[in-house]
Specification:
single chain, 428 residues, six-stranded mixed β-sheet, four-stranded mixed β-sheet, 4 helices, mainly beta
Length: 428
């Protein structure tokens, strides 16, 4: 036994040494590995590679670990391979689900929306949401049938289903979707359900939700983030503005990037290379007033909100957010987090405003996905406020929900030299 351990240790050291010198390893023979192979197994025709053996239950446990990884680790986990001893097939993790290379009946069916891992979505009546069906295990699917509220949808027989809601007289409507998938070995394998909530709104217009302020007055908050009112794709989470900039195209999530700084603070920006581009250098303008934009109470310079609306002040944000108070008879809003939709829900008892976990555009110009914000156990929504009359520097409000201890936090941050792209939520 000691001799076997010693030989194993020596073999490990040899492999490590070879990998360190050549970054390539051949095991089982005396030939060099092919130039395109990092690791080559030479079996002599009598042996093979034994993959990790997991039951379906063990695979479920592993799946929970993989989906709980931080965003940077999720990409690294793609390509993980196991042998499923329950289904007797090899499976590869693609980042969201296990893909089987075996044949036979479909093991399971999964449908997803614009954001993986979410089974409930909000959208507006002028938008289209695309749902996608995937089969796990078994042979290639040969047929799909989508269902809406338990009824087959005519013509919806592809792996993707674009849903454009009808116009109704209701303020909002809920629809439940699922898909049945078949292959040559199995038929009508039912997927999970996805709930879609449709809020009636008019394309090109912001819709206001009234919420009571601390003093009993009403503040109307746009139910869409700025940019969503003209987005027909429900996957678009809104424009991402650099603080103080006008809507010149830089705010679109797919706008080009430049490292050239503007020399002025109002459009048309100079030099011309800045126009319509996200400036990936702080501050985005070298103009001396780069921190004093967006600061007038109701006619602020470069305000991207449409006529009749304005960027909220720091105090307006605070007036509708929950406080730790005990004052008798005072009316304050409450906040909750919908884990299915990954949405913050703010209510004054009569009206509800929903704030989805939101994208962010980093100083590099890269757009972070909804999942990436805060990591696997923390979700945040961030949006600009203007610094009139307090505080004295630009900043943003962040709603933070921590999954592990089911806690909430509302934090306000000074932006320093604002270059990152955050959402804009207009009020009136």
């Amino acid at each position: 036994m000691k001799m076997k351990k010693m030989m194993f240790l020596m073999l490990t050291l040899l492999i490590w040494g070879a990998a360190s010198m050549n970054a390539q390893v051949a095991i089982g023979g005396d030939k060099d590995p092919e130039s395109f192979a990092v690791l080559e197994l030479i079996n002599g025709g009598t042996q093979g590679l034994r993959l990790p053996q997991l039951t379906a239950a063990q695979r479920t446990t592993l799946t929970a670990q993989l989906t709980g990884l931080s965003e940077d680790k999720k990409d690294l986990a793609k390509g993980l391979i196991i042998f499923n001893t329950t289904e007797n097939c090899t499976e590869t993790w693609n980042g969201t689900m296990w893909i089987s290379d075996g044949t036979g009946p479909i093991v399971s069916a999964l449908i997803s929306g614009p954001v993986s891992g979410i089974t409930s979505f909000n959208m507006f009546s002028y938008q289209t949401i695309t749902l996608t069906a995937n089969a796990s295990g078994g042979s290639t699917p040969t047929a799909y049938q989508w269902y809406k509220d338990g009824v087959p949808v005519g013509g919806a027989t592809a792996s993707t289903y674009p849903f454009t809601p009808p116009t109704t007289a209701n303020e909002r409507d809920d629809y439940t979707f699922y898909c049945r998938i078949s292959n040559e070995y199995s038929s009508n394998v039912r997927s999970n359900d996805i709930l879609v909530t449709v809020e009636q709104a008019t394309f090109g217009e912001l819709k206001g939700i009234p919420l009571r302020k601390d003093n009993g007055d009403v503040l109307y908050i746009a139910t869409q983030f700025l940019g969503q009112e003209t987005a027909t794709d429900a996957a678009y989470t809104g424009d991402l503005y650099q603080y103080g900039r006008e809507a010149d195209g830089h705010e679109k999530q797919n706008s080009p990037v430049t490292t050239t700084q503007a020399t002025n603070s109002s459009a048309p920006y100079e030099p011309a290379d800045v126009r319509g581009k996200f400036v990936a250098k702080s501050p985005w303008t070298t103009s001396s007033d780069n921190k004093s934009l967006w600061d007038n109470p109701h006619a602020q310079t470069n305000d991207p909100c449409p006529s009749g609306w304005h960027l909220p002040t720091y105090e307006e944000f605070l007036s509708i957010l929950p406080k730790n108070v005990t004052a008798s008879g005072s009316q304050y809003t409450s906040i909750n987090f919908d884990t299915d939709k990954r949405t913050f829900v703010i209510s004054d008892g009569d009206n509800i405003k929903q704030l989805p976990v939101h994208s962010i555009r980093y100083e590099s110009g890269t757009v972070g996905t909804q999942n990436a914000i805060g990591g696997a156990n923390e979700w945040t929504a961030r949006f600009w406020y203007r610094h009139y009359p307090l505080p004295t520097t630009p900043g943003y409000t962040m709603l933070r929900y921590t999954v592990t201890n089911d806690s909430y936090a509302i934090q306000n941050y000074g932006a320093g030299y604002p270059v990152v792209g955050y959402a804009v939520m207009c009020v009136k």
